[in-house]
Design goal:
This protein is of the alpha+beta class. The protein is built from 15 helices and 17 strands. Strands 1-2-3-11-4-10-9 form a seven-stranded mixed beta sheet, with helices on both faces. A five-stranded mixed beta sheet has the order 13-17-14-16-15, sandwiched between helices. Strand 5 and strand 6 form a beta hairpin. The longest helix has 19 residues.
Length: 425
């Protein structure tokens, strides 16, 4: 059954239209007057944490990295590489695999209908050959080796392995050289059929385009569809596996990452992510006394930052940067969290941080690519519309943040990952 819903933001003077087609594909559109660029993204609800699925009561395991491998090979077409057609149309295209999603996207200032047709065509009609899939194995293996040579990548990879016992988020998005050796064309085809179903996809378009053109093409390429396989979930303890890990690499200054492991589900994680971004600013944002004291003491520098990493069934808050004494920074962060839990969050600090985060969030609605990403996130997290983040920030209270801080920022469930210069203790 087709549904058609429009959501409006009086504050932004903007609206989005969400249409669910009879075949199950959801199409989200946001026309932006004055824009000359169009941005389209087709997102599939499958990612690196999907290392198995359930069909008709039977659990079927999958090798790590299969979603990423599939993303690589989706651009193969009987006529050649889909990227060449994008290039010929003047469209800039790419794709990415995340922990729980895979996305294919392009932007252009002309030839939008033709570029959208290329996108829908190669995702709707996969083309895998045994030889091409075998050759890709070497390319992905080289990509894995390149990641292992990156200190910035490894400090995060090591932290996730320290924090998580069994959850597949602890495994590299691209898998391992051993796991990708198990992947062949037949397996890619099976995974495509299990997950690349219209009901497990969303097409998000923002900028300058004609809505009816988008809907006509989407319905042509995805007229019908079956239900996607049920992804497996991992039974993950609340505790971290270990509180500390380190590795030596050829760098000049130690880098570190601190993680606070929390519990969350897909429907709650969007709200939790926004609240956690507020909390990270309150714990050690640039305007806090802790940040200034660490910076003035030389414990951190301008590389220091924070982020929230969240997916379908996991969420963690992270601080990272360079420091010659990572343990001292970690101890200071844990002490700050404990003090805020004990003494509460000052109302003035909360108001300042909420205002700053609100301003940054509003800025997202002025960029076509950000709106497309928000629309996809809204679809998979169950948000009623893309303006819900503004409502969350408007309605957030000190008491709500303090509760979040008490429940999910336990220093006992935190970990420190360090990359040290080789031969230096």
């Amino acid at each position: 059954m087709k549904t058609d819903v429009i959501h409006c933001s009086a504050l932004l003077g903007q609206s989005t239209r969400t249409v669910t087609l009879p075949g199950g594909l959801t199409v989200q559109m946001c026309r932006m007057p004055g824009f000359v660029t169009a941005y389209a993204m087709l997102t599939v609800g499958v990612g690196s944490i999907d290392t198995g699925y359930r069909m008709r009561g039977r659990e079927v395991p999958l090798p790590a990295g299969v979603a990423h491998y599939l993303e690589h090979k989706m651009f193969d077409c009987p006529y050649g590489d889909a990227m060449q057609r994008f290039d010929a149309l003047g469209a800039a295209a790419n794709a990415f695999t995340a922990f729980d999603k895979t996305a294919y996207y392009f932007s252009c200032t002309e030839n939008f209908p033709q570029a959208l047709e290329v996108l829908l065509d190669f995702v709707a009609t996969p083309y895998f050959t045994a030889g091409s899939v075998r050759r890709e194995r070497g390319i992905i293996a080289e990509e894995l080796r390149m990641y292992r040579d990156s200190p910035e990548w490894m400090v995060t990879a090591n932290l996730l392995q320290a924090m998580y016992h069994r959850h597949p988020v602890r495994v590299d998005i691209a898998g391992t050289e051993e796991s990708i050796a198990e992947i062949d064309a037949a397996l890619l085809r099976r995974c495509y059929e299990r997950f690349y179903c219209p009901g497990n996809m969303v097409l998000s378009v923002a900028g300058c385009f004609e809505e009816e053109t988008v809907l006509e093409l989407a319905e042509r390429y995805f007229p019908t569809g079956k239900k996607a396989a049920e992804p497996l979930t991992a039974e993950e303890p609340k505790t971290v596996k270990t509180h500390y890990c380190e590795q030596e690499m050829p760098i000049a200054t130690p880098i570190f990452q601190v993680g606070f492991k929390a519990e969350g589900g897909e429907k709650e994680n969007m709200r939790h992510r926004l609240l956690d971004e507020l909390l990270l600013d309150l714990i050690c944002g640039e305007t806090t006394d802790l940040y200034r004291s660490l910076y003035e003491a030389g414990e951190i520098n301008a590389t220091f930052g924070s982020e929230v990493m969240a997916g379908r069934d996991f969420i963690c808050a992270m601080f990272d940067g360079e420091s010659r004494r990572p343990q001292a920074v970690y101890d200071a962060l844990c002490e700050r969290v404990t003090a805020l839990q004990r003494d509460g969050i000052p109302q003035g600090d909360f108001t300042r941080c909420r205002r700053a985060n609100y301003g940054r969030t509003i800025g997202l609605y002025g960029r076509a690519e950000s709106i497309a990403g928000l629309m996809a996130a809204a679809h998979f997290s169950g948000m009623k519309d893309i303006y819900y983040p503004l409502e969350i920030l408007r309605s957030a209270t000190v008491e709500e943040l303090e509760q979040r801080l008490r429940e999910d920022y336990d220093p006992a469930n935190s970990a420190l990952s360090v990359i040290r210069p080789q031969g230096v203790q």
